[in-house]
Amino acid sequence: MYRIGELADLCEVKADTLRFYEKHGLLSPSSRTDSGYRVYTDADAARLRFILRAKAVGFTLSEISELLSIDLDKSNWACADVKGMVDLKLAQVQAKIAELLHFQTSLQSLSDACCGGPRSAEHCSILEALESSTERVRVEHDHGATDCTTTLDKSGN
Amino acid sequence: MYRIGELADLCEVKADTLRFYEKHGLLSPSSRTDSGYRVYTDADAARLRFILRAKAVGFTLSEISELLSIDLDKSNWACADVKGMVDLKLAQVQAKIAELLHFQTSLQSLSDACCGGPRSAEHCSILEALESSTERVRVEHDHGATDCTTTLDKSGN
DNA sequence: ATAAACCTTAGAGCCTACTCCAAGGTCAAG
DNA sequence: CTTGACCTTGGAGTAGGCTCTAAGGTTTAT
Fold first, then answer.
1. Using the beta-carbon criterion (under 8 Å), do A83 and B111 form an inter-chain contact?
2. Domains of chain B, with CATH numbers?
3. What's the confidence (pLDDT) of residue B156?
4. Which residues form a coiled coil (chains A, B) (predicted)?
């Protein structure tokens, strides 16, 4: 039996977070004291850990809600259903990774094209790349940068 | 000279988005018609393209605001300042990628551990992994899954 | 002249996951 | 019996980027 602050400390979350989870139907304390304090059991703690593990692999709270309700009614669901959720999330994560890798590549080439020196940004190749209506930017400026050409890929949009 | 809808179509954004950018100080039309319609010039269009290119490499609107004000006052900024912003963003993007790769790995091992079959999820290894208080899950169940052991890494939190 | 397509504004709503606040009640120690 | 740490509630605020609505004015084509 834990009070809200105890369970929060135990699982390294804030008490506010537990109230938030309760408000959103993810985790309710099994009972209350006479004075209204929340009382959590070990089963509640286990449920919280389920939530935190699901969060740690990237599920949103509403997806976790779904997973929890499946977990409580396993016999009416198939492995395929659960695996489907995991695979869908996997695909979403991979799509996001792809987008970020795109950002990374573009940022890296912007960074590489810039001398990074202490002098005026009047010919900064990063600003030029962002300004230019063509996607191709010549970088050949006056304070010590090496010559280079960088491409800002429009398809990353 | 463009009306809001024309510029929006030209740059494949919504008119609402342009009004939103205006409200947030990113892009204001150079003038208005007598009846109050927004009128955008080519320079405004160029500024919008700057914004969209910066978005395409991962900058937030408030960062883009900063980039725009640097761009308008280049001589008072150094390349180092601009490159610093790019490198900071790059680091943030890389951190996010690392987190998502973590998610990906965990999700992949959950997926691999699950038979994905049409039968009851009562022994579903994914649910077991999320339930289990240990981080290690034996997967050895009754409907056709191959034996395996999957690890749900707590450090990915 | 009128209908369609466009424009204006202020302001609300959405999504995610908290986080914080105020005003007050409860509990254990000294 | 008071202090301090804990708990309660409802509600607002944050970030980020739109998106939509209502109620009305303007332009353009027929």
1. yes
2. 4-59 (1.10.1660.10), 112-156 (no CATH)
3. 37
4. none
